[in-house]
Amino acid sequence: MATAASDFSDKVRTDALQLVTMSAIPGAVAALARLNIFQALGRAGDDAVLTVRELAALALPGKAINITYLARLLRLMAAKKVLREVVAVGDDGDVTERRYALEPIGRFLVDEAFLPLLLTFQSSGFLQTWEHIHESVLDDSIAPFTRAHGVNAWEYFQQNPELGVTFNKAMAGHSEVYMRAVLDVYRGFEHVNVLVDVGGGFGSSLRLITAKYPHVKGINFDLPQVIGACPPLPAVEHVSGDMFKSVPSGDAIFMKHILHDWDDESCITILKNCHQALPEYGKVIAVNHVLPEIIHFEGGDHMAVQGDIHMLAFNPSGACERTERDFRKLGLAAGFKQVQTICTVDNLLAVTEFHKTV
């Protein structure tokens, strides 16, 4: 009789197999999103538990589809707790019916918080980038995305406007979800009268901040081509410019996911311009993913490290996530006297304050 492998070896072997085959997961999620499956479940209501055929009819009315193929994709989503599978079993013990409902994770794919981000990263243009990661290790002047397409991501979006629209939706949705979470735990806007959002895009963060703190006047600061497309917002003034040259003045300056786009030298330039624009009591409020000094395999550690590789893949050379120690060094080099992490969201996103005075 053959000797069974140890439980430990079984788990390690399975984990290794999952690692090398895990591309099936985002691929399947993207396929179901393109088939309108998550949106259909969302429209069906919170209590909806649908058969594969019912879901197909709701998501793709009038279209001939392979029910067996769809069922296979749905089962993977159930295995990953994106969907909940409810089975009916006959007297003989055989499964007679399978129904599916949204799990909490799946609901994020309905409200379009993360769905456009998924479709961006699963687009052919972004997938091709991974083939060039190793080249940047051998030659750090190589940016993988540029290597794959001959242009950087922003120029690629201009050449592929449909993907650019999806990406902009992704950034807005991501910002909406996490800014609401930040505002639940961070109280540093209470004594701010004029808040400048550097790299504020279309003003989605300021919209949420000024709604919660009506006394705050917002200044949304970004490049001219961005500001030119901004919708009017209550209590928000849109101002165009270049953060590498100067930044508008305010009691505080807000930056969300800006510093990770740049190398250290560029970050110090941006922070110096912020320092110059602030009064003596002023502060920069920066929201970023923060890398752990030591990975603890729980909380948001793995997501921060994963996000860092996305920066390596899709952004120009020098873009990266940073540790708290890294942010402190940047702040001190730019002239700030105190740099302190105030709070975190999901053990992943940190709110860091840079103060001109101690």
TrEMBL record:
Source species, domain of life: Eukaryota
Active site, per annotation: H260 (proton acceptor)
Keyword Cell division attached: no
Alphabetized SUPFAM superfamilies for the sequence: S-adenosyl-L-methionine-dependent methyltransferases (SSF53335), Winged helix' DNA-binding domain (SSF46785)
O-methyltransferase dimerisation domain: residues covered: 18-110
Coiled coil location: none
Name the UniProt record assigns to this protein: O-methyltransferase
Organism expressing this protein natively: Ceratodon purpureus
